[in-house]
Amino acid sequence: MNMERLALSDVVKVVPARFGDNRGYFSEVFKDGWFRENVADVTFVQDNQSLSATAGTVRGLHFQLDPFGQGKLVRCIKGAIFDVAVDIRVGSPTYGQWVGAELSADNGAQLWIPVGFAHGFATLEPDTIIHYKVTAPYSAKDDRGLLWNDPDIGIDWPVTGEAVLSDKDKVQPRLADLPHSFTYAAGEQA
Q1: Of 95, 132, 138, 180, which one is the catalytic site residue?
Q2: Is the full-model pTM beyond 0.70?
Q3: Is residue 62 among the annotated active site residues?
């Protein structure tokens, strides 16, 4: 497995090795011990999968409040996405900044998004399927969001035309109006 800390250093791109021949390839996509030692010492409790039928679908930006804050390990198993994390930890030197990476079935890349970050993605191809592991179960009462196109954040979404959005994602608050949900602790990576 290869890893790369992105511009927001707590967000990590993981690229599992692929071993191929004339039949295709084999890849170990997750190893608990390796992940704990090299990326984050966390326990995953649930795996989720979503299908987005239309290219240009945007899901997010989502997060959950503690005690159900979720770290996410996201990968694309069909199609391609532009995956985004936004630092929403008050006091962080990178508060309100974002980072993105293309994840696809072809490149096999994954993105680790820790608790304290909002997460979202835009589909680059029709019928895109993502699979992600989370560190806490879904909690409807703790589910929150951030406006996907907040100009104060300025995410450069690769969406041509009008984005396909859920009703909920159309009306999420801007960062300036978001209640403080996470606090950056001195000594954390940023």
Answers
A1: 132
A2: yes
A3: yes
